[in-house]
Design a protein that fits this description.
- The structure is a single chain.
- By secondary structure, the protein is mainly α.
- The chain has a single domain (about 1-305), classed as ABC transporter involved in vitamin B12 uptake, BtuC (Orthogonal Bundle).
- It has helices spanning about 1-35, 40-60, 60-85, 90-115, 140-160, 165-175, 175-180, 185-210, 220-235, 240-255, 260-270, 280-285, 285-290, 295-305, and strands spanning about 130-135, 135-140.
- It has a two-stranded antiparallel sheet.
- Helix 1 (about 1-35) crosses helix 9 (about 220-235).
- The longest helix has about 30 residues, at about 1-35.
Length: about 325
């Protein structure tokens, strides 16, 4: 039982911090521009494919660096020549535009790389165990993912809270006209913020590809969960996204690892239902079976009792 608890916690942290890497870019874009970028998961997928392609010719580490830069540049161009032109028509049109970009990215990926999963592997230096506990190995690559995710969180908080760049970004959100009068190019700040957010999605894709798989459906598999995290943590709150990512990552991992049902829990309390009970199918459902639904159940609960999310100030 101790082995299951320790490794479920570690795997939950890895999964949760991976979700944060993806959610951090989406949170940054929303907090800056008020746009829920529906193409964000598509940029994550593109980062994975670009990382894989570059790694084939130049190695894993150049791919991890170059792929997010390309995705970040593409994100900046999407804002400059797309979102900026439709912004005057309101948020609904912005959502429709990013929804269309998401479909376009998926079709482009399938056209170039096909529909099969790509053999994207960790670098040889991290292709081994970080440590062995209870006879079970914990991969060094997952340890690298943990360190990189925490470094991204600390870096983002530091930049936004303690640097001049962060001060300009925060001021541009609330007082764009005043910031512009002080000599700052507010549209350029918006474009760069969108580019950085897209680049964070690219990093998540490049680092997740060897573990989660690099295939056309990777955007859909994590895309919906990321929006749950952003709302659950609080729209625009980086700290909220971090906490929500860890909670959902750990809860989902434990749900998969523990093969128990509602009936098992009730039996410990002395409550036993007959096999022919009308709700027997419900009581016998196991945690791994309902694991994919847990984030959405948590979202419904948080919206009922705290509509702004854990750390948010904007109404959802």
């Amino acid at each position: 039982m101790m082995e299951i608890t320790i490794f479920s916690m570690l795997n939950g942290l890895v999964y949760g911090l991976l979700l944060f890497m993806l959610a951090s870019g989406l949170t940054l874009i929303f907090s800056m521009m008020g746009v829920l970028n529906l193409a964000h998961a598509g940029l994550y997928m593109l980062g994975g494919y670009l990382g894989y392609t570059i790694s084939k010719y130049m190695g894993y580490w150049p791919g991890l660096v170059v792929a997010p830069l390309i995705v970040g540049f593409l994100g900046a161009m999407i804002e400059r020549y797309g979102l900026r032109n439709v912004h005057k028509f309101g948020h609904v049109v912005e959502l429709i535009f990013t929804f269309g970009v998401a479909f376009l990215l998926e079709e482009v990926v399938q056209f170039i790389w096909g529909k099969d999963q790509q053999p994207y592997n960790p670098p040889p230096s991290l292709d081994g165990p970080l440590f062995v506990l209870y006879g079970t190995e914990f991969p060094a690559y997952k340890g690298f993912m943990l360190v990189l995710s925490i470094a991204i969180f600390v870096s983002l908080l530091t930049v936004l809270a303690r640097t001049r760049v962060g001060l300009i970004i925060k001021a541009a959100i609330e007082y764009p006209a005043m910031v512009s009068m002080l000599g700052h190019n507010v549209p350029f700040v918006f474009m760069m913020t969108f580019g950085v957010g897209a680049g964070l999605a690219g990093i998540a894709g490049a680092i997740a590809g060897p573990v989660m798989g690099t295939y056309p459906g990777m955007a859909f598999d994590l895309g919906t969960i990321v929006f749950v995290i952003v709302v659950f943590g609080g729209l625009g709150s980086l700290t909220g996204a971090f906490v929500a990512s860890l909670i959902i990552g750990i809860v989902q991992t434990f749900a998969v690892a523990i093969n128990a049902s509602v009936a098992d829990g009730l039996a410990l309390l002395g409550v036993i239902f007959p096999a022919d009970h009308v709700l027997s199918d419900l009581w016998t459902m196991t945690l791994p079976q309902i694991g994919p639904l847990i984030p959405y159940i948590m979202l419904v609960v948080i919206l009922i009792f705290r509509p702004t999310g854990l750390f948010g100030t904007r109404e959802t």
